[in-house]
Amino acid sequence: MTTTHPMNPFGSIGEMLEALAGIARVHHDPANQGIEILDEAGFRDGLIDRLIATAVFVQGPERDAARWIIRVAAPELGAWPASIHALYMAAGRGEYANRTAPAINVRGLAYDTMRAVYRAARANDCKIMLFELARSEMSYTQQRPGEYASNALAAAIKEGHQGPVFIQGDHYQISAKNYASDPEKEVSALRDLITEAIAAGYFNIDIDASTIVDLSLPTLAEQQALNAHLTAMFTEHIRDHEPEGVTVSIGGEIGEVGARNSTVQDLHAFMTAFMTELQDRERMLRRDLAGISKISVQTGTSHGGVILPDGTVADVAVDFKTLQQLSEVARINYGLGGAVQHGASTLPEQAFGRFAEASAVEVHLATAFQNQIFEHAAFPADLKDEIYAYLSANHGDERKEGQTDAQFFYGARKRAFGSFKQQLWDLPVETRDRIADDLESSFSQLMQRLGVAGSGELVDQMVPRVDVPAPMPDALAATLAGEAVTVGASAEATLEEVEGE
Q1: Which of 6, 290, 325, 492 has its CA 20 to 30 A from that of 307?
Q2: Virtual CA dihedral for 324, 224, 269, 84, nearest 10 degrees?
Q3: How sure is the predictor about 32, in pLDDT bands with cuts at 50, 70 and 90?
Q4: Same-domain pairing of 146 and 197
């Protein structure tokens, strides 16, 4: 167990720079912006804790300075934002198999939870794992890309992770309702989010236009046409904004999670339309555009699972045969890494080995770890009561007819992560460590069952290191130059909540 230090935010950029003295040197020459680490142990000890607290909770120039320091310090300490594209393309060529990447949606206690993932990864020599957050989750967890990426990199620094850090935009989803009322506005909103995420270090983006697949249309080609069109359009946008030397890993999706199961025929219809659309764009642009690296499918799961009246999760039968067929077709016919399974974290533990057997390239996991936090014996009962009272007062209108309290709170409590972020952050060190230790054990078992334990050498061979420059915030540069700094809240995009996770 690794006990954290008190995590008090910095009150000013000047205070932050004073704390860096003797530990790191910031270079602010426009031709040489970056950081030089003088004392690795000192940086990983209390300093990174205070930097991430500032990056998460302070509104203003101090936040942006802390995020930048974390972003540029991580590569200097051996961890860097990366794309998993090359690794998945290797799977598509048959260079490895039976390894399913866990993509973990960290909704709350982000820094502690991510640290637990890195500890489990180190113990299992695992480097195939992703941290992701869906468009819908950003609102109720109150984690924009800049904050989420900072947590992932700060946790890597703290735990001494050496290698790529895969940060992913999950379900960057078209809202069918919003698209129907104003398609241009909805497309523009998703474009803006993609641009923001890439700038923050998200080099893996899952485009989900499966929400607008119209199953009432007479042919599969017609059903998938708009999905393929939008996925190709966003692929072009990503390629226009990805950093030099980085090929962002892009995922497509053919079947909405929770709807009918996907078929091989659906996959063929989507890929035929997508590749045709992408080729048309290439001819128009007169340049090559790398396509997607994986395809998300529906094989019987649902986000959060099916909740029974007593609050337990119903058994779900995943169609592993179909999953395997879809992965094989994705690899053999289209050179993709394979199929991706969503909504799987609440399945029985023994089921996870079957994802690797089916050569699913990736599996998305969220709710089980959320449950582990809320239901942990160390989680304060009075805080849980306060959270449930808040949910009843502020989200009671979302309660479905006939739902028991157990069913309602199970489904609604994810909405408390943002509003109670500070209270969770301020839990006693011993409480957070007890929860994180059990999470670490779960992550370790997951890595073993998914076949990604012992993947360090494979990742080192397949994933190239690309150091992407990050521009220094103006306020930090001005402080270093001895200029007066205008204090004000830094602008950060807002986002209306889009359901889907």
Answers
A1: 325
A2: -50
A3: confident
A4: yes
